[in-house]
Each structure stands twice: as structure tokens, then as C-alpha cells.
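Hi Q.,

Before the meeting this afternoon, I wanted you to have the zinc ion prediction in hand. No need to reply - just skim if you have a minute. The sequence and ligand are here:
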Amino acid sequence: MRYNTNWSEAKAVVTCPYCGSTDTEPFSLFGQQLLTMQYYCNACRTPFERIKDDDVLDDYAARKEEQA
Ligand SMILES: [Zn+2]
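Predicted structure with the ligand bound:
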């Protein structure tokens, strides 16, 4: 279960979609869907979700193709 130890991804800079601040922090590894993470913006105090669309899914797809 690599999900529980993958917090390094969460430390990447995330820009708040509401105010554009980078003063954000993850507060839940999973949002309402498995492919989203919940973040909290310290600047405007608004929680938001971000889709885990970058390296995680690319890496997963690559591994799957190698095994096929
Ligand atoms: Zn904000």
C-alpha cells in the first residue's frame, strides 16, 4: 500500500484555485473521489480539491504497460 507513504507528492507546491496563493497544505490524502486530494488554503481559508493527475497516474500507467 504505497498510498499511505506517498506524502512526498503532497508536498509539491499547489496553487489555490480561488486566490492564487501557494500557501496551501494538504489535509486529506483523499477527497470525495480516490483521484482527488483535499487541500486547505491558509491565505483565504478555503478548502479545495486537487486531482492527482501528474506523476502518480503516469507512473501507474507505465507500470501497467510493462506488466502486460
Ligand atoms: Zn486561497
